[in-house]
Specification:
- The complex is a heterotrimer of chains A (423), B (287) and C (331).
- Chain A contains 12 helices and 11 strands.
- Helices cover 56% and strands 12% of the residues of chain A.
- Chain A is α+β, with helices and mostly antiparallel strands and 423 residues long.
- Chain A has a 4-stranded antiparallel sheet with strand order 3-2-5-7, with no helix packed on it. Chain A has a 3-stranded mixed sheet with strand order 4-1-8, with no helix packed on it. Chain A has a two-stranded antiparallel sheet with strand order 6-9.
- Chain A is elongated and about 85 Å long.
- Chain B has 287 residues and is an alpha/beta fold.
- Chain B is 39% helix and 22% strand.
- Chain B contains 10 helices and 10 strands.
- The longest helix of chain B is centred in the middle third of the chain and has 21 residues.
- Chain B is globular and about 60 Å long.
- In chain C, 72% of the residues lie in helices and 2% in strands.
- In chain C, β2 and β3 form a beta hairpin.
- The chains are: A alpha+beta (423), B alpha/beta (287), C mainly alpha (331).
- Chains in contact: A-B, A-C, B-C.
Chain lengths: 423, 287, 331
């Protein structure tokens, strides 16, 4: 944001400086708009196609050379648009920002230095083999599924024990991610201790304190479920913009492990940090399942989900269970935030942007069942990633939400949901 | 009011005198006939009724220990729940798969164990809601009051009469939420009558009603029979069952285990067994 | 601080286009949430469908704006059907999740690069698509008083907008006091009771969803016409949540609730924002504490906090009475 602003200011200053000095249409002179295409391994990429649209609407096309360099010569001032043809990239190479195919270039005068346009490349879909792409996307899907699953289990447990459809659950993810970033970038700690401190913070503030000071008093007042749902919307909105207020709107990377190179395992490519984070995530989900099925508290929490009145009557301290579930839910969501941060950086809307996928996962699995939430998360994670085989990647979330609607149409109680009893 | 009382009761009893007291027995003039109705929840079979018939014009009680499947059977008959298999008819019309509102329109109206008074509607609006075929309930015609004003007046008149009968007329402009638990039961029954049903199905009409109101509620139920309606009700209170029912059907573990006139059924060892046997593992799920 | 300016801005907002858009959106929500008990969290989707239908048809396909309005209404009915068919038989929270998801689908499809030639991507569509509408503008001069300033076109939009609000308020009033309104209010209280009395709950919920959705599409028309552009990110879930705040502020299940709520909402929002802006500009609030960029963010924090506090302490709206509060407490 700030850098962007600086660039705009510079451009304005530059235009004020140059415009009066040189006439807009200097005959016989030209400017070169150019760039160099290199792949993630720093080798130049040839034969990438670029199209330039001039201010008068005319277009010209060029290809990058063997040195990766491409260029257009222009002889008019005004706004130009460069567009890359992503289809012309070689197999296995993609754009770092696949949604940004165009760049605007403003030519103020024709004596200017060559205008450089940069397209960064990254791991891309391997168009050569659909099978290989599918395998890589399956791996990505599992990573996404685990991330969503961590948050979905907590959401589902809280829903099961309190009936609250928590629209502020995404903010727990953000708290985990942004909290880590805070200790990492502002306080200056290494990423790992930062993450640990942020997790503690998330479970204490986001879990314990949120329940004790917001939801518990509301339960005591006998607030209705719909009222609490609306309250969670307001709470989420407030917290989200408090994050924005303090951290700004930019997407930020953690200071360590940011530019880690991917490891190649046959057709699969994955960074070491994501291997470790995903394994920890799977272990955490596994431990949660063991806790739910083996420990007294876990079993009690399932009893509370099934029938709070009965659980209470048989001597279970329902409020204590709810407190534990909140702490656990916040912890898991916080870790999901750290995972997301490692993968794509942290931002104030990272949680709320994911919330709908989490809801989709929980709904698919059948509202209120923890196992269903996990299965639903894997389905959503895999679906979101694999759907990019056939639909543009910018629409991958749309596909997942669409499937949610379709599944509700066919099997309303979710994949693992139980049928409800009336009366 | 009490003179014809005996005649309708005697008619019902006379029709049932020669019916043998065996589970699933055929009745001379059944309003409901159900066959092989099965409902399972997970692995648990909640209802498994091979055959049962409900006699027209009589008051039939459906009794059984907790978890016997009475309420579930009610839900199935009225379309509020779907069975795994089975079929049943009402006045000879096949009802399996018919949605609840259509069941109600055919003249088979139920109440609920937990009263469903519509809290933020006035008592009068609760009543008016029950009336069938209202012109003003169409979305377009609702905007043109001259279409429905006359009908609304007729409905209001009928509602006022029923409210008087149920001694709720003083409360007609109050929110239903302001009524006591017993009054809500009365309101729910009166509202069901607004539908002009042939068969009234009452799910535990006495539950939570204060004893002062019990007697008047009983009279109201008997009154339904006098007006030519058939009554099927679920109840735990044995005194009430003995007092008002012409026929008793006993369910246990989802099955019909006994039926017959009240005195003979209550002396039936199978019934006593079902109750005592089930009392050891009382389940709370139906409460 | 220039209090006249602050006051002028706040008053303009309270009777201006934004208040109209949110009043209409909330009138639709009132039908859904206030009267029928439907949790529609995708009202932004209905606005988007209305706004985009008009923009796309008029700009890209050069259809007459009046036909485009009709098409917009048709599209909102279609959206209501698509949302309602899978969810209206299910528990209330399913509708909430599906509607919020659908509104996001609409927004993301509208801003997608692949469909830019139809919807204009993240920049949306800009054009003179209100020309036919403004051609009917009888105002030759705008309004220029110390408190209120409107250009002739603004004045025309505001007049027609409030007229629409009035029409829908009267319509709501008429329909909720009819037997139809009785049925939907009964559905809000207890669906099963209504079923047991022979009414098709599904049919009534669907009618209510369509009705409120159509009113929402009118909010979208006003949005698009007043700005002569549509932008996908204007129709994010925040719009829906703002509309809920408006509704609850004015009082759900009150005929005038959405209108009163919208006027107060926009007055307060702009009033507070302008005071903060002036305080920052005049160094009353130091820059390290609050910079001009952050003032806009305070709006969202305030709305979030306001929605929470309203729902906790005054769920019946700021003018609701105690009696209804007692009835509400258990719902």
């Amino acid at each position: 944001m700030r850098r962007h602003l600086a660039r705009v200011l510079l451009a304005i200053v530059a235009s004020l400086w140059f415009l009066p000095a040189i006439p807009a249409h200097a005959e016989g002179e030209s400017v070169v708009i150019s760039g160099t295409m290199i792949d993630p391994n720093k080798s130049p990429i040839a034969n990438v196609e670029f199209t330039l649209t001039a201010p008068d609407g005319s277009t010209q096309t060029t290809l990058s050379g063997v040195d990766g360099v491409w260029q257009f010569e222009v002889s008019q001032t005004g706004g130009f648009i460069v567009e890359i043809n992503p289809e012309s990239l070689p197999s296995g190479v993609g754009l770092r920002e696949p949604d940004r195919l165009t760049r605007s270039v403003f030519v103020f005068n024709l004596n200017n230095n060559p205008a450089a346009v940069q397209y960064l490349t990254g791991e891309g879909p391997k168009r050569a083999s659909l099978g290989e792409r599918a395998l890589q996307l399956t791996l990505d899907g599992i990573v996404l599924g685990v991330t969503i699953g961590l948050a979905a289990v907590g959401l589902s447990l809280i829903f099961g024990t309190t009936g609250l459809t928590n629209f502020a659950h995404g903010e727990l993810i953000t708290l985990g991610g942004l909290g880590t970033y805070f200790f990492n970038a502002y306080v200056g700690l290494h990423l790992i201790p930062s993450a640990l401190i942020a997790l503690v913070l998330t479970l204490v503030i986001g879990g314990y304190a949120q329940d004790q000071f917001l939801w518990k008093p509301l339960r005591k007042r006998g607030s209705g479920l719909i009222a609490m749902m609306v309250i969670s919307i307001g709470f989420g909105l407030m917290v989200r913009y408090i994050f924005l207020f303090f951290f700004g709107g930019d997407r930020e990377q953690f200071l360590q492990y940011a530019g880690q190179a991917g490891l190649q395992f046959g057709p699969f490519s994955i960074t070491p940090k994501m291997i470790i984070a995903t394994i920890i995530g799977i272990i955490l989900i596994g431990l949660t399942i063991v806790w739910l099925t083996r420990s007294t508290l876990g079993k009690a929490s399932r009893a509370v989900s099934d029938n709070p009145a009965l659980a209470s009557a048989s001597g279970i301290d329902v409020e204590k269970i709810i407190m534990v579930v909140w702490i656990l839910g916040a912890f898991l969501a916080g870790f999901a935030g750290i995972m997301m941060g490692l993968n794509q950086g942290v931002q104030f809307i990272m949680g709320s942007d994911t919330l709908l996928l989490i809801f989709a996962a929980v709904t698919l699995g059948g509202l209120g069942t923890a196992y269903g939430a996990i299965v639903g998360s894997m389905v959503v994670g895999l679906f979101v990633q694999l759907s990019t085989l056939v639909i543009p990647s910018e629409l991958k979330y749309v596909g997942a939400l669409f499937v949610l609607i379709i599944i509700l149409l066919v099997k309303p109680q979710g994949i693992l949901g139980r049928q409800e009893r009336i009366g | 009011m009490h003179a014809p009382n005996t005649s309708q009761k005697e008619k019902a009893l006379a029709a049932l005198t020669n019916v043998p007291a065996t589970p699933g027995v055929a009745k001379p003039d059944p309003i409901i006939v159900a066959n092989n109705v099965v409902r399972q929840f997970g692995g648990l079979t909640a209802v498994n009724v091979e055959h049962v018939e409900i006699q027209r014009g009589a008051i039939t009680a459906l009794i059984g220990p907790n978890g016997a499947g009475k309420t579930t059977f009610f839900n199935l008959l009225t379309g509020f729940d779907k069975p795994n298999s089975g079929n049943w008819t009402f006045n000879g019309v096949e009802l399996a798969g018919v949605p609840p509102h259509k069941v109600a329109r055919m003249g088979m109206v139920r109440t609920f164990q937990l009263t469903k008074a519509l809290f933020r509607l006035s008592v009068m609006d609760n009543m008016r809601l029950g009336a069938k075929d209202q012109i003003g309930e169409g979305i377009i015609r609702s905007l043109l009051p001259f279409f429905w004003r006359n009908q609304e007046a007729e409905i209001t008149l009928r509602a006022e009469e029923l409210l008087r009968r149920f001694k709720l007329d003083a409360k007609k402009n109050d929110f239903a939420a302001a009524l006591s638990g017993g009054q809500r039961k009365l309101l729910e029954m009166a509202r069901a009558l607004m539908v002009e049903p042939e068969l009234v199905m009452l799910d535990e009409p006495m539950a939570g009603v204060n004893p002062a109101l019990t007697q008047s509620l009983l009279e109201h139920i008997k009154d339904l029979r006098e007006q030519g309606m058939t009554v099927l009700f679920v109840e735990h209170d044995m005194d009430m069952v003995r007092d008002i029912s012409d026929w008793v059907i006993v369910m246990a573990e989802g099955k019909v285990v006994a039926e017959g006139p009240p005195e003979s059924v209550m002396a039936n060892p199978a019934v006593i067994d079902a109750y005592l046997g089930a009392h050891h593992d009382l389940t709370l799920e139906e409460e | 601080m220039d209090f006249l300016f602050i006051f002028q801005q706040a008053i303009s907002a309270a009777i201006g286009v934004n208040a109209i858009i949110y009043a209409l959106a909330a009138i639709g929500l009132n039908m859904h949430f206030g009267y029928t008990g439907l949790l529609n969290f995708g009202q932004a989707g209905f606005l988007a469908v209305g706004a985009y239908t008009v923009a796309v048809l008029v700009v890209t396909f050069e259809v007459s704006i009046w036909l485009a309005f009709l098409a917009g209404i048709g599209m909102s009915i279609l959206l209501a059907l698509i949302l309602g068919i899978p969810t209206l038989r299910l528990r209330a929270d399913y509708l909430a999740i599906v509607t919020i998801a659908a509104a996001e689908i609409i927004r993301q499809v509208a801003r997608s690069v692949s469909l830019r030639e139809y919807f204009g991507g993240s920049d949306g569509i800009t054009g003179k698509f209100g020309a036919d509408f403004f051609a009917l503008n009888p105002f030759k001069a705008g309004l220029d008083t110390p408190i209120l300033r409107f250009t002739p076109n603004d004045l025309w939009v505001v007049l027609v907008g409030w007229l629409l609000v009035a029409i829908f308020v009267v319509l709501t009033w008429a329909i909720v006091r009819s037997p139809w309104g009785r049925v939907i209010k009964a559905i809000r209280e207890d669906e099963d009771a209504v079923r047991s009395l022979g009414k098709s709950v599904y049919l009534y919920k669907m009618q209510s969803l369509i009705l409120g959705g159509v009113v929402g599409s009118f909010a979208g028309f006003v949005y698009a016409i007043s700005r002569q552009s549509v932008q996908p990110d204007n129709y994010s879930t925040a719009l829906t949540f703002f509309a809920y705040t408006v509704l609850i502020l004015g009082g759900a299940a009150r005929v005038l609730g959405p209108v009163v709520g919208s006027i107060i909402f926009w007055f307060l929002l702009v009033f507070v924002e302008q005071i903060l802006r002036q305080a920052v500009a005049n160094d009353i609030i130091p820059n390290w504490l609050l910079n001009p960029n952050q003032v806009g963010q305070i709006r969202f924090i305030l709305v979030g906090l306001g929605l929470m506090l309203l729902m906790i302490y005054r769920p019946q709206g700021i003018f609701g009475d105690k009696k209804e509060l007692a009835l509400n407490a258990r719902a």
